[in-house]
DNA sequence: AAGTATTTC
DNA sequence: CGGAGAAATACTT
């Protein structure tokens, strides 16, 4: 598993990589790298598949070349400018860092294979894999020594390991086992998120809190007397236990990773009372720390299913996922909820380990000299110029060890498809027939979920593995096999005609339906169907729709505002549930709303407000920037104030006009987006407006406050010019939000680095007082004797700028970076470097707060997957 | 906005 | 004898 040194220069290397040869310990039974590689290449060479792989590889190489060309055109000016913007963003991110959640990623070890082995003792101690001769989905660890891995075709695996037993998958069984596991997980987080049958995220923050007061009895797990598979020997049970315990989680009792040993364990740790489970005769008592909880989970899983799991514990999902891989199989690893612990962990982490960075991204980054997270951070400015906004934001998050701190429930599905691989089909009639069958299957699946969509896509893969997709969108939703086929047929026909007189030699065909109407659309339809219909069957589908809409609107989450920036998304994640309601409300601002749904909504709103701790005074706006209460001013006025607050600091005009304006825009943009929801409320009644917006804003403040609190002040780690993390602000303000009167208390804190989470409030004081207090620049760490926030921010800007220059100087030696200064870029240096860079992402970074479109979804990449 | 290709899990 | 399904993103038109 531990393929730390990944080479990925060419296909061969990639194969090695995929086969996980790095962990081949060349045991007496396994094969060594060369041998495996040779066998694979023999089986691969000359195949159509391989041909296509080479072709794809060339495409990637071309992409890299283009990228390098772009890079070569970047001037030092541009880079500096980018650095400023990126660092500003990084600083905001740093301030939003939230270490308060305990996220666990559970990963069953070699799941399918393990189930098969459990249920068939014959397979014990033999290399096995689950799948077919054409594709394997899992292999056991024994087989992995031969280079047999998931995603490898079985026939090749057989050559690597002739004794390999390939077991056909029993998905029903895996589902059943998975359900058993999930039942356990639900005890710790009823809202856990299952990613697949063998993987899940939990947020155990709440559980940990409650658990602190649990008596031992409540944390006691009884040991099953005898496994179904073993011959029970009453005597052996106890012996078995300890041995068994040890085998369950080696690190449970012994070698704790450094993190776990560092002083001041987690905040959740009560005391040292429970570092290890206490094993009694036939029961085990687990402690109250996160580590103990996860041990307990794994223990219970093992007891219940006789299968082992690995787990990762961290403050966010991205890290938790990486952690679960660290001590696999049958192990766990924790990153303590401290900034330094996160940074230490991230430091040498190969980016490929991160979920979302795949083969291609790895290779592209490698071309830029980036393989570890530290390098990823160091190149942040460059990356912002070479990659799309969502990509570099994603990269930046990774390199700062940030990820999602909450688990978002799955949104609505966005598409549904069926596809099938088969031996070559070239006859047109067969192709149509196949297409029809696929459409029927799809229609069935759709019916199960009651879905209808407007876009039909067919996917074709020919015998050379070349893939093509063709889509068509119609004006009204379809769902039946006939409707879908009618559209798919045309798409297929077009393709057949296009190649005529050559037949399409297909090896795969797929049909997909997407473009499901969202609530908005449904509403719209509902309203306007009557007038709009053309055909009879459309009437049917439309009315079918009406039945559901009313109910579903409140049950299903609604997409997020498209306008929100990446950062805003992140920052406001915690108020999603509220937003859902907002969105709905605003969407229906045109009187579409039935009075019934309005009531429901209002009820929801008031519930939300009740649970919101700061609901007492919801007329009060508190600026999330200066934390100054704005009283019951109008929303417009409030937003203006916030804008002013945010754009104030970017008085970096002192340095360069262009820079100043762009950062200003950036900042404003963020705010606008943060508050876009509020603004939309303008059309609503005044009363509602204030409710919504004030809550929204208060929560925002809280979010900021919490984030800062979480980080607390970490002055010790704020060593300038160290390992590229220098400019991350590690000093922050601790903002206590006082719920009583909805006012803010801001205090400066120092962290006692040895104690876990003991935060001593040095001088808590109200906002009014704080302004007289010195502010500490998060960059240079020096006190600024000013009460003027704007001035203070100016200082920070200056500091930041200095830091960047320093870093740029350093970078001169870096092999990757273009040398800056007059030397190389003389040709360009004089000109305005407006858009030498390709418009890949063109305006989005510097301007276009309005045109920018951020996709509404949970980007796989973006925070939410790892954040999920 | 729609369509197509690519990437990732 | 080299999978399937879903989602996201980027690029193109």
UniProtKB/TrEMBL annotation:
Residues 103-358 form the UmuC domain. Keywords: Coiled coil, DNA damage, DNA repair, DNA synthesis, Metal-binding, Zinc, Zinc-finger. It holds the Pfam family IMS_C. Transmembrane segments: none annotated. Residues 620-650, 774-804 form the UBZ4-type domain. The keyword Magnesium does not apply. InterPro entries: DNA/RNA_pol_sf, DNA_pol_Y-fam_lit_finger_sf, DNA_pol_Y-fam_little_finger, DNA_polymerase-Y, DNApol_IV, PolY_HhH_motif, Rad18_UBZ4, Rev_trsase/Diguanyl_cyclase. The keyword DNA damage applies. SMART domains: ZnF_Rad18. Residues 249-278, 812-868 are annotated as: Disordered. Residues 57-99 form a coiled coil. Residues 262-278, 815-832 have a biased composition (Polar residues). PANTHER family: DNA POLYMERASE KAPPA, DNA REPAIR POLYMERASE UMUC / TRANSFERASE FAMILY MEMBER. Belongs to the DNA polymerase type-Y family. HAMAP family: DNApol_IV. This is DNA polymerase kappa. It comes from Pipistrellus nathusii (Nathusius' pipistrelle).
